[in-house]
Structure formats: C-alpha cells, structure tokens
Amino acid sequence: MARPTIADIARRVGVSKGAVSFALNGRPGVSEATRARILQVADEMNWRPHSAARALGGARAGAVGLVLARPASTLGVEPFFAQLLSGLQARLSAESMAMNLLVVEDSAAEIETYREWTSAHRVDGFVLVDPTVRDPRFEALEALGAPAVVLGGPGRFGALSSVWADDREAMLSVVDYLAALGHRRVAHVAGLPGLRHTQRRIRALRDSVRRLGLVDTVSLPTDFSDAEGAAATRTLLSRPGRPTAIVYDSDVMALAGLGVAGEMGVRVPGEVSIVSFDDSVLTRVTHPGITSLSRDTIALGGQVAEVLLQVIADPALRRDVKTATPRLVVRESTAPPAPGTAG
Amino acid sequence: MARPTIADIARRVGVSKGAVSFALNGRPGVSEATRARILQVADEMNWRPHSAARALGGARAGAVGLVLARPASTLGVEPFFAQLLSGLQARLSAESMAMNLLVVEDSAAEIETYREWTSAHRVDGFVLVDPTVRDPRFEALEALGAPAVVLGGPGRFGALSSVWADDREAMLSVVDYLAALGHRRVAHVAGLPGLRHTQRRIRALRDSVRRLGLVDTVSLPTDFSDAEGAAATRTLLSRPGRPTAIVYDSDVMALAGLGVAGEMGVRVPGEVSIVSFDDSVLTRVTHPGITSLSRDTIALGGQVAEVLLQVIADPALRRDVKTATPRLVVRESTAPPAPGTAG
DNA sequence: TCCGGCAACTAGAGCGGTTTAGTACCTCGG
DNA sequence: CCGAGGTACTAAACCGCTCTAGTTGCCGGA
Which structural domain, as residue segments, surrounds residue B13? Predict the structure, then answer.
C-alpha cells in the first residue's frame, strides 16, 4: 500500500477525517478511547504527516532557513559553520524542525531567497549571519514579516531579534593579556572590512592604544582566506619596527601566519606572539599550539535555535540574548617579547 | 496585499486559474499574447509559487535531502562537507532545487529521516555519504523507492546510483611515490574502520607490500578526530623500527601527526615523511606544507547533483559515474628517508 | 453549407491535511 | 419532563496549485 492518508485511517477506524486529525494532533474533540484506537491504527499503517499538506493549510512549514552569502571556498575551511549548524539542529530536531540550507553568491541573492521561501511557506523563520555595517537584509526581512534571528554583535538589527557576543570585550581581553606580557606593538589581521564585528574589533584595538599606552597598532583587513592572512603577515613582519604580537580574526589565518613566520625564520613565540580570535582543532593541533579565544559554538547554535523558536511561536516577540564572552585559552604561541624588541 | 495567488492573477487578467498555471509553467494551451500578459501581471504582483501547494498535487518537492550521521565535532573540522555542499548547491540551484540538511546521531535515525521526508514529500531524492561495509541504508531507501545517489567507492549499493572515486588506485599512487623515494616502512593512520573506503585503502596498502617488497606496513583505524590521529602517530613513532613514512586518511589527522612529530622532536621530512589523503587549505598553510592527494570536491558535488537530478527525472535510471582519481600534490613533508633508517 | 479538427480556453476535481459549522446524544437542574 | 449546555463526533469548505475533461469558436475541406 502506498502512503496512507488520514482518510485511510478514518475509513479503517470508522470515523471522519476530522476526528482523525483531532486525535493525531492531541486536541480535544475525541474521546480517549477513540483517540487511542486512531493512534494505534495510524501506527499500524505507518502513517506520517504530509508536511506540504499541512503547510498549505497555513500551518507551520516545520523548517527554518539558513542562507549563506559566502564564497564556497571560505565556507569550507572554518569549523565555525559546521558547529553552528549542528548546535542549531540539536535544538531544532527536538521540535522536529528541519533546516533548509542554501549557499548563494551575494546578499541580493540571499534576499531573493528569503522572498521565495517565505512566499512558498518553505520555512517558518530565518537565521542570519555575518551582519554588515549597512545591511539590506534586515529591512527586507522586516518587510516580509518573517521571523528571524541575527547572529552578531551588540546593536540594533531593525526589529529583528539577535543573539550576540561581545567582540569588543573579547578584543580588550586579548590586548590586556598581551600588554601584561610586555607587548607594546600589537598588530591585527582582520576579516572582511564590511562586517560589523570586524569594525568593532578594529575599534576596540584602537581604543586600547590610548588606554594602555601602546604604540603603532595596525589592523589589516582581509577576506578571511589563508592567502590574504599569509600576505598580511608577510607585510607586517617585513616592516621596520615589526609588531611583537599579532592578533588574527580567524584560526585559519593564524595558522597561515604561523606558517609565514616559520618560512621567514621569525621564531614563535620568541620573536612574535600569535593569538587567534577563533578556537578550533586547528589551534590545538599545530606546534606550537596557538593561543586563542575559545567559545562553545555548538551551544551558540542552540541558543540561536531557541530564540528563533520563540520568535516563530510569537512573532511580536523580540529578544536580544547576550552569549558568554569568549575566554582566552593560552597555549605556546604567546610569550613576553624578546628584550630589545618591546619598544 | 498579502501574497498573491494564481487566482488573483487570473481575476486581474480575466482568464481562468488553469490558463494562468499553463502560462506560468511554460506549457501549451495558451496563446503567446495571453501568456505574455499573464507573466507581466504575475511579475507586477510579485507572485511566487507556493511550493507546498505544488508538492501536494503530487509534483516535485523542489528539494533534495542530505542526512549526515556523524558526530557534530567531526563535521566541523573537515572542509570536505562544506565544499561538497557548495558543489551540490551550485548545480541544484540552477534547477531551483533547495537542499534539506540534517545532522543525526546514527544510521537508524538517518533511515527514519528518509522515511519521514519521503512520506512528507519534503524532498525528491537523497544524497548518501559514508557508505559502510554492510550498510542498512541502501535497503531502506530501495524499499521507500526514493531516488538516491551514493557518494562512495566502486562496488554495488543495491539498486542505487553512485558517484565514486577510485580509492585503491589513489592509495597505490601514494605508496608507489613513497617507494620510489626509497621508503620501505610505510604506516597508515586510517579513518573509521566500518567505512568502505577505509577498508579499500587498507587493502590497497597491504597489496602494495607484496608488489613493491615493502616491510612492516600497518594501518591504525581512528575516528577521524585530531585526538586519535595524534595518538596513532605517537604509537607509530614510539615503536622500535618506526615507519619512515605515514599516510593519513584526512588532512586534520595529518596536521595532528605533524604536531606530534614536532613535539617528539622527530624531523619532518628528515626522519618521517607525511602524506595526507585529503587536500585543503590546511595542508598548504602549515610549515612544512603537507604532500596530499588533491581532488576537486566542489566539482564532485556538482557531479553528484547532476546524477541525482537525472535519477529524479527518471527513477528507473541507474548510473554509476567514476570521478577523476585524486592526484598527488607534492609539498615539503615528503623526502627520501634518512640513510640508515630505510631498512 | 456542414462538419471535423484544432487551438485556446474554462470548470472543477483532487492532492492531504486543518478547521469551522453543524448535529446527535447525554446529563443535569428545576 | 423539558430545555440548556457540554461532549463527541460528522460534513464540508478551504489552503494554492495542477491537470483532466469539456466547451467554445474558428478554419478549412468536401
């Protein structure tokens, strides 16, 4: 027998489709005896709901959407997304919610996908990542009236809810640590300049200069690729008055930087200290291990999912959840600067 | 105005719903003039198809499913999936097909997901990865009659189509290269022992012993994690008569192995050569760079998508596509063995 | 002139659920 | 013994789209 429908169950039990629907959805209108009988028959017939039919009636789609406007190559190397994804799904699957994932070219395509999926009732809500400085996605999503959660830093995302970490505080803790070790020339290999968190980190570093009396700090923007991370490192290490410590916005770039230092014969941490803003297996596995800011990305995914579920349940709701600030895990890539270089 | 339906368009143009449906789907039954008018109005009203309604009629769901039964932590570190994903989507999005992704605990949960998504018409077909030696998923999918493509090695996957690479040939090419450099003691840090490709690689290595007159080859299975990769490396390098070359089944493990060698003061490639079975940014970025088998994973994803689309279009079809065998990219982690260690 | 055939369209059933309006029956107070 | 009110159910509309069967009008051939 092909897929059974509630009509099949109704016939077999000898009740109406409506009664079956009530019973299967646990709502009042049927006696306990009838409900039990219907559930038993549904189970025997191996019935499963037809999500399309449900969605048609205006009910939940039973899925959330995540659209990424990042080049595929960038996606590949960062553990961040995979971990975020599994954290999201751990929470979502408890609610039998699926996840629609799409990788697109740019944010225009991303917005078009939001339109299509909303119109098509394909998803009940969206997760947004990588908020940029003047991000057209917020307005578009608000216009669509689709529930959404932004994963980003502090600040406003239109009327959208958010889950955020304090990048500023994290950067300050890194620079405080380096300054305490005696470093005065700290450089920063940043990520995409358009991203909000890149801006926040750059600003936090600049503020540290004044506060801690550092000299000569600089932030070089990159596209997060290993190639640009390596190039930026090469630039920094070739300068007269080279930095004694470099902070990288991602673990892949930190790793690339470590490679460049080795290549140039610059000892780590003897001549330059290295800190990564992201922790992952990569930072643990290298030799020397890389001092990193560590956070529980899987838990972060769970929090995002939680907030999204709440917003889906009550679209009028708006929540802004601050997550734990990443803490610094010290490994072998950081040490006090060599005497004579610290000026 | 809320989301427009084809009925709204029909009313506005002054034709029936059926005519609108014909026009929008590019099928005969309306004149060119009417079709143009309908398309124009649809565009003006910003109409988008409601995929649930389409799926209800028994038509395509407009999505494919990828269910991964891997621990989230393993997922994170390998660029492989992200690249595969983007390759899949590049091809699928040309057909406006979306992708439903789910990470589950084990293959029982995976099979249950296949049941649910098939019943619910949520997807039109599936991509299967990580085929194991006696894999229950093939039978389950055949019973469901769902179109599917297995990404794996040569061999039968029940009646399912497949896209496969020749692991055996790849392993042989690695061992040939190492033997040509003069290595006689080659070790292998393998992946999960239950996976078919792990078995094939182990067998290929064993066969090389006889063919090339190597001594003392060994394959240590792992769970693909950096921890087990490091542990296996430690074991191998502590042995009397330690190997002069180690082949790793993944880039993360090769990286971990490189770290362990550094820790133990074993020079790479002076005292031990290292080869990774997977190429990615990680192998390029380290110092020394790791010699690796390289393949175009994004293109691979495209091929899988192509075959899946064909099988969805004609479920009776069965295709087995062999992909290009990975080619060896030599970097600095391999060299002839030091004199006196090669025996 | 009439009819067959075709192009261009319409009407409406159907997909598998949900939901509302309505009905039959039971119970209980007065 | 009657009617109000609650419970347990049925019938059917409805969601947006597809697709089949039918209808209309026009053209060309005998």
Answer: 6-48
